[in-house]
Amino acid sequence: MIDIHSHILPGLDDGATKMEETLVMVRQLHEAGFNTLLATPHVMEGKDFLHPEDILTVTEQVRERAAEAGIPVEVLPGSENYIFPDMAKWVDAGKLLTLGNKGKYLLIELPMLEIPQYTDQVFFELQVKGLIPVLAHPERNKGLSDDPERLLEWAKRGIVFQLDLRSLSGYYGPQAKRLAKLMLNSKLVRLLGTDAHRVNRSDLSYSEALQGVKDIIGEAGFQEVTLKNPQLVLEGKLLPSDVRDYILNEPVKMRKRGFWNMFRR
Q: Which GO terms describe its molecular function (predicted)?
């Protein structure tokens, strides 16, 4: 499996603090079944901006140390970019790192409590440049909980959604859990990520969360979101469009009231 979203790089953000912690996290993720890990530290506009070269350097250090420790995983660079109006200009300047450094898929984070007014414009400007926005953990965003039909609108426009595994367990609260389940049932989820920030205290939490995903979308769907789709991302190729076509069908085209009624069945 491929973990498309993690914070395993030591000392770069609010994830791992030192290499020893990183190696424990990497080993845990490998034992859970992940053979490829995307290291995606937080990148924000401003004085604390994290440059791609710093991410690439530390990713290589982690890759070397994991190999020395005998952990057979591939560690690849990426970033989780907090949305801001000038993202497209920063892409032109080479200041934002795409997933796998392939120049195609850009992982984007929204504020937890709202959808900024400039979000649609940012998505459009990135797509004009040939990039595909990947929205990190949309199930955790209050604005999308209040207006879930935005998910359908964005999916039609080619925005890719990445689900956090911990959302399905209720780690981020009941609203995130409900929206995570509905997104999985509606085939809106294209990618999965652990969003791991630190050493996992439970040996079963990853495996239980993965099984929960499989129970909802079945083995074929599970293979798509954990292996087939992320592999295409790492190859810089387009994801199949059949899922986006499917969500336009009547069973998934929902008004707000009908949307939430699905939770009560």
A: manganese ion binding; protein tyrosine phosphatase activity
